[in-house]
Design goal:
Elements lengths: L2 E5 L2 E3 L5 E8 L7 E7 L6 E6 L6 E3 L7 E6 L4 E6 L8 E8 L13 E2 L3 E5 L2
Amino acid sequence: QLQLVESGGGLVQPGGSLRLSCAASGRRMNNYAVAWFRQAPGKEREFVATISAASTTTYYSDSVKGRFTISRDNAKDTAYLQMNNLNNEDTAVYYCAARPSPYARETEAEYAYWGQGTQVTVSS
C-alpha cells in the first residue's frame, strides 16, 4: 500500500513562495503518476498540477499555470510543488495524490492514494 505524507505548508504573505513536499512510503513511487489537488474553505477539491511517473508530462490548472511547478525525485520517492507569487485565492488545504499508472491525469477519481493534506494560508 502506497502511503503519502505532505509537508511544507504554512502562512505566507501575498507574493511569497512555498514548496510543498509529498513523501511516499510502502512502495516505490517511480511507477505512479502524482498530482496535487487543493480544497479551499467552502469549496470542492480542485485539480492543481500533475506529473507523469518519468517526469515527461506535466499539466497545470489555468489558475496556477506560470506560478506553480510540479516536480519529482523518484530516487527519494518524493514529489514537490513549488508555488511562487502566491495570492489569497491560493489559500487551501493541499493534497498529494498518486495513481497506479505512469500516465498523468487531471481527474480526481483517477487517483487511488491520498495524503492527509497540508494547510497553505496566504495572508498579509
